[in-house]
Automatic annotation (TrEMBL):
<protein>
    <recommendedName>
        <fullName>Catalase</fullName>
        <ecNumber>1.11.1.6</ecNumber>
    </recommendedName>
</protein>
<keyword id="KW-0479">Metal-binding</keyword>
<keyword id="KW-0560">Oxidoreductase</keyword>
<keyword id="KW-0575">Peroxidase</keyword>
<dbReference type="InterPro" id="IPR018028">
    <property type="entry name" value="Catalase"/>
</dbReference>
<feature type="active site">
    <location>
        <position position="57"/>
    </location>
</feature>
<dbReference type="InterPro" id="IPR040333">
    <property type="entry name" value="Catalase_3"/>
</dbReference>
<keyword id="KW-0349">Heme</keyword>
<dbReference type="GO" id="GO:0005737">
    <property type="term" value="C:cytoplasm"/>
</dbReference>
<dbReference type="GO" id="GO:0046872">
    <property type="term" value="F:metal ion binding"/>
</dbReference>
<keyword id="KW-0376">Hydrogen peroxide</keyword>
<dbReference type="GO" id="GO:0042542">
    <property type="term" value="P:response to hydrogen peroxide"/>
</dbReference>
<dbReference type="InterPro" id="IPR011614">
    <property type="entry name" value="Catalase_core"/>
</dbReference>
<dbReference type="InterPro" id="IPR020835">
    <property type="entry name" value="Catalase_sf"/>
</dbReference>
<feature type="binding site" description="axial binding residue">
    <location>
        <position position="340"/>
    </location>
    <ligand>
        <name>heme</name>
    </ligand>
</feature>
<dbReference type="Pfam" id="PF06628">
    <property type="entry name" value="Catalase-rel"/>
</dbReference>
<comment type="similarity">
    <text>Belongs to the catalase family.</text>
</comment>
């Protein structure tokens, strides 16, 4: 329900307000009175307008849209929203940057979040991805340390090149993603002109419970457009909201951005012998191994009406699956299955799932969970336990996804290494794919940042990782850093 924009101004309790310009005083020029409900209520409410910003991806913009199935994938998954060519599902997508705070500029070198909610008839399915097919690390236990180096230093209060490069150089698995980030795609021109990726490997299960491993790709139909570092520096200063404004205005103009949705599909039996660990988030599956196949089209066609209610309070969780889709054993993904719900309960509250943007739109949530702060009483007097003899909602007995086999002992194990797994080969492949001009920009972007590192050993270790990816890459970087450091 939208509140009427006409009629008398009221207090929060709906009583008419006589004066919204002058607070109430004891006599002319006297002190202000505690009985002035309008003043006290306004000041108190104002103090509570903010909720904690997201610990990462604080800065973002969202839009509603439609996902349409364009090819038959029923032999791979029994997810109902994917069950028929032509079938449409409502979606909400929140784009974001990662490191900046809520008020940060959009045009910066940083991965972009691509968090997509499908409001399916079997519940909401969230695919919480980025505009990059890979990530910096491959174990969730390293995530808080990694983010500490991207965010503000406890002493200086700013992002510090020393911390960033110390961590990256000591985490050589980041070499692939860092090469990607400092290349041309590291600063998209807008949210519309970039791809999205599920990044992790996920499980699809069909009606016969056969298992497939999948990776999602959202290819922009607008074409890829990027900013150079110089262009980004200018735009970040002139229009910090550049991405947010671009998205909203394009939709207002009726220019609905769209993405062609593709998946790479690996039959489960092929995972064990694949040349890379298929659950390693720092690696792609080369397209010659598993060619992407088109499955749908995503269009964004409706702006949120209230940014706080629909974007700031929106929540996405990699643990929000629907029947026929589930997690892989990727150790990063496993950590994320916990982290997001926990963040939502802290940031938005225990009833976050029931806000209009977050609740299922094509079905309803029928839980026995109750109460908590700001509970709206949606269950009325219905019984709140299961099993019950009164026809209440009951478990189905059918898991959403298939079981995975495990062997061995518990322990702090590294993810298994496959024949061609190392931290550098795919970074080198990416470098060698680039044109000479792209390589020049990559080396300039990287060297500009590494040159800010105060300690030679950290700078040398950082360059060493790129040298291991590609000898020439390392040499050029070393020369460029030396030239800048003098
Ligand atoms: C173990 C690794 C990770 C952890 C612990 C983690 C944790 C978090 C947390 C706590 C939030 C804030 C959620 C909220 O307050 O609503 C968040 C947001 C987000 N993360 Fe991660 N993250 C991880 C890795 C990743 C990866 C690998 C991706 C992409 C492939 C990703 C994409 C996102 C996106 C897109 C958002 C913003 C969601 C939104 O728009 O509300 N994260 N992450």
């Amino acid at each position: 329900m939208t509140v009427q924009e006409t009629g008398p101004l009221t207090t929060e309790a709906g009583a008419p307000v006589a004066d919204n310009q002058n607070s109430e005083t004891a006599g002319l020029g006297g002190p202000v009175l505690v009985q002035d409900q309008q003043l006290l209520e306004k000041l108190a409410r104002f103090n509570r307008e903010r909720i904690p910003e997201r610990v990462v991806h604080a800065r973002g913009a969202g839009a509603y849209g439609t996902f349409t199935v364009t090819s038959d994938v029923t032999k791979y998954t029994r997810a109902k929203f994917l069950s028929e060519v032509g079938k449409q599902t409502e979606t909400f997508l929140r784009f974001s940057t990662v490191a900046g705070n809520l008020g940060a500029a959009d045009a910066v070198r940083d991965p972009r979040g691509f968090a997509l909610k499908f409001y399916t008839e079997e519940g909401n399915y969230d695919l919480v991805g980025n505009n990059t097919p890979v990530f910096f690390i491959k174990d969730a236990v390293k995530f808080p340390d990694f983010i500490h180096t991207q965010k503000r230093d406890p002493y200086t209060g700013s992002q510090e090149a020393d911390n960033v490069w110390d961590f990256w150089s000591l985490s050589p698995e980041s070499t692939h993603q860092v090469t990607w980030l400092f290349g041309d795609r590291g600063i998209p021109a807008s949210y519309r002109h970039m791809n999205g990726y599920g990044s992790h490997t996920y499980q699809w299960t069909n009606e016969a419970d056969e298992v497939f491993w999948v990776k999602y790709h959202f290819k922009t139909d607008q074409g890829i457009r990027n900013l150079t570092q110089g262009e980004a520096n200018r735009i970040a200063g002139e229009d910090p909201d550049s991405h947010q404004r671009d998205l909203r205005e394009a939709i207002e103009r009726g220019e609905f951005p769209s993405w062609t949705v593709q998946v790479q599909i690996m039959p489960a039996a092929e995972a064990a012998a694949y040349r890379f660990n298929p659950f390693d988030l720092t690696k792609v599956w080369p397209h010659e191994d598993y060619p992407p196949i088109e499955i749908g089209r995503l269009e964004l066609n409706r702006n949120p009406q209230n940014v706080f209610a629909e974007v700031e309070q929106s929540i996405f969780s990699p643990a929000h699956f629907v029947p026929g889709i589930g997690p892989s054993p990727d150790k990063m993904l496993q950590g994320r299955l916990f982290a997001y719900g926990d963040a939502h309960r802290y940031r938005v509250g225990i009833n976050a799932d029931h806000l209009p943007v977050n609740r299922p739109h094509a079905t309803e949530a029928r839980t026995h969970g109750r109460d908590g702060a700001l509970y709206d009483g949606r269950h009325g007097g219905a019984r709140n336990y299961e099993p019950n003899s009164f026809g209440g909602p009951a478990q189905t007995g059918r898991p959403l996804w298939s079981a995975t086999a495990v062997t061995g002992y518990t322990g702090n194990h590294e993810a298994p290494s496959h024949a061609e797994d190392d931290d550098f080969a795919q970074a080198g492949d990416l470098y060698r794919l680039m044109s000479e001009e792209e390589r020049e920009r990559l080396v300039a972007n990287l060297s500009g940042f590494i040159a800010k590192v105060s300690r030679d050993d950290i700078a040398e270790r950082a360059i060493g990782n790129f040298r291991r990816a590609d000898e020439e890459f390392g040499k050029r970087l070393e020369a460029a850093v030396q030239a800048l450091r003098g």
